[in-house]
Structure formats: structure tokens, C-alpha cells
Amino acid sequence: MSMIVDPLDLAARLAVFALCAALLLVGWRRGWGPSLKITLLVALGLRVLMLLVAGDFKPYDLNIDFHRAGVNALEHRDPILNAPQTGWNYLPTYALFLAGNVFVERQFDVPWMVVSRIGPILFDLGVVALVGLLAAPSFRSTARFLYAVNPLTVLVSAVHGQMEPLCLLFALGAFVLILRGERAALTTRRVLLAGMLIALAISVKTWPALFLPALLIALPTWRHRVQLVGAMGGVLVALFVTMPLTVGTPVSKLPDVMSVMLGYHPVVGTFGWSSVLLWLNPVPKAELLHDPFTQTIGTIGTVLTLAAISAAVWWWRRAHPVDIAMVSASAFQVATASHGVQYLEWAMPYATARPARWTWLMSIVISLYAGAGYLVMTLLRNWNDIAPYYYMSGLIVVAAIVIALPWARRQWEPEGDRPGSAEPALVGAAP
């Protein structure tokens, strides 16, 4: 009996993946930089094509958790209080967007697996444009193209339909507001808008808080930093206290909702070092959330992750803010015990805008890992037998991430090394 459920389906998926990978590699080698219009058309075409060949895959979170959250928000029910454990753990920003998706599904009979992926695909097109704005002028069009064709970004938006593209759209918007133009000409209005944007990113999903140190370092004065934090805090508090109005949260339940938001973490053992420990000491899948061994791994992972991020930010504290954002997200990938494949997209826009010597290698390794998970593993009959080895292969991804860090770039010259100025560090970054 074949291990593959449908070989033709697999062949179609891999063909589109190979097309993306080939465009990425040739784009790095040739320094391709088409116009923004052409790049966006290529990005859209690849994502639609991937949706057509792999859209029959139904990720549990997209198909069940996201749909339930949208239904609850549409019917004015709190999506956290009306979801099973770990089903929804966020402020209502994305749930309200999903409510619109559910409305379209019901009113126009658009299949959920289509309508729920349209938003992430369109958000990703916005990220493509913003990546170019963070890159040096001579590299701007190439950076856009490389992000547009990256197989990882195509898979996360078109197959997984995840929140990551919207988080990155808001977060990169904050960086563009702060970094574009002269440092001395930074206005209070732009700082406040940047604070609001990073708050919206965090409200969609909490991980964009990783980028806050980089944003604060990018600001020239403590007054600007207080303004950004104040604007961010104001938006987050407003979104939380208005939950009784937006999604019907009982006022008496707000402390419980806050506890759920702060206590959320994914299942451990699905990536890197923690997967090795679970391979050596297997735990039944039904017991993963409550098993003392996995809880211990999760606690250790939290401490390691916080230590790794703190150490990375300190080591690169004088680096360009885009590099700090990249290493902050990368430190999480290296140290965390709780992981999802989509998390690998967090550092990619920053790494693409300001590539280091081995960024191309990291992009390919991560894309191969994601492609194996999204496109191959989902068609295997013996998925459970192979899954532990797939998870442990994340150690190769970790190694590629470490190699690709901008080790040689630890000093930022604010007036001479900003988007909009020449940046020799980018020259020759391709393989």
C-alpha cells in the first residue's frame, strides 16, 4: 500500500513549490527586481496557484478554531469563553475580521476554505510592498520580489491561512513610519501612529511584541519612546475594555479572559530541541496539555526563550532596528519549546529587507521544512509514525537560522544607514 494518499495531488503541490523555490533561488542569484506592479501580480498568482493545488488541506485551526471564533464574534459571543481550551486566546481584532468572513460564507455561499484564505493572501501582498520600503533603494525591488516568491510566505498565507501576514503588515508599517526619512525629522504623529500599529499587530496575536525592543531602539529620544509605548498601551487597553461591546464579553469575566490570553502557549515538542525530548520520552497526544513532563519542558522553554531573546537584543543593541527585529524573532525560533510552522515567517520580512551572507540558505531550508509539513506530511497515511522525525528535523532549521544571523552587523549609524540611503552591507548578500 502506498504511503501517499494521492500521488497526483502531491505532484501538483510539489510542482508549484518547485516553481516558487526556483524563482527564489534565481532571484537571489540574478538580483531580479521587477516593478512593484509585476511583483504583486507574481505574488498573487503564486498564492492563488498554491491555493488551487493545496486548498483541499484543512488545517485544524483555520477550519475549526478560526471558523468558531468568527461565528462567535458575528453572533456577539466572546470567542475565548465560547471555545475549547487553546481554541482562541487573543484580543477580538482578528475574530471580528473572521466574523466578516463567516458573513460572506453564509450570504454568498463561498466555501470557508476559500474565503478564510483571501484575507491572509491580500495582507501578504501588503507585506511584500512594505519589505521594499524597509530595504535600501538599490535593493528595494529585489527585496520585494524575493519575499513575494518565497515558498514559506506563499504556504503560510495560501495554505495555512494564518494570522501572521496581518501581524507583519501592522508591525512593518510601524517600522516604516519610524525609519523612513531623517531621524531628526521624526514627528510625534508618526511615533503615535507607529505605536498604534504595533498595538494592532499584538492584538491580532501576541508574538509581535518581539519587535518592540527594535522599535524603541530606533527612536531617537526617551520622549518618543514614552509616546510610542503610551499609544500602544492605550490601543491595547481600549481593545480589551471594549470587549463587552465588540464581542459580548461579560464584564465579570474580563479577568478570566485576560488570564487565558496571558497563559496561552502552543503544544510543546513539535520543533527543535523539545521534539527530541518527547521522542526519547513519548507522551500520548491526548495528554500533551496536562502531562507533567511536557509542562516541565514548556516551563524550561519559556525561560530559555526569554533568556535567548534578551541576550540577542543586548548583543545587537547598537545594530540597525530591522536587524534587531530579525534576531529577536530568530532567538525565539532557536530556543522555544512551543512552535508552529507558521512562526518561521516572523523574521523573514526583516531578513529579506536586510539580508546577511547566508539569508538565502536560511530561506531555502525553512521553505523545505515548511513545504514538507504543509504539502507532503498532510498526504501521508503513516503521518503519526513519521511526525517525530519531521519535528526533530527542525534542528536543521535552527542551525540555518543561527548561521544566517547578521553576526557582522552590530553597529547602526542612524544618519547613514537608513532606508532611503545607500547600504553597502546589502551588496553581494546573494549566494
TrEMBL record:
This is DUF2029 domain-containing protein. It is found in: Cell membrane. GO terms for cellular component: plasma membrane. Pfam families: GT87 (PF09594). The keyword Transmembrane applies. One of its GO terms (molecular function) is hexosyltransferase activity. InterPro entries: GT87. Keywords: Cell membrane, Membrane, Transferase, Transmembrane, Transmembrane helix. Coiled coil: none annotated. The chain crosses the membrane at residues 12-29, 35-54, 121-139, 159-179, 191-216, 228-248, 260-280, 292-316, 358-377, 389-408. Belongs to the glycosyltransferase 87 family. It is a multi-pass membrane protein. The lineage of its organism: Bacteria, Bacillati, Actinomycetota, Actinomycetes, Streptosporangiales. It comes from Actinomadura rudentiformis.
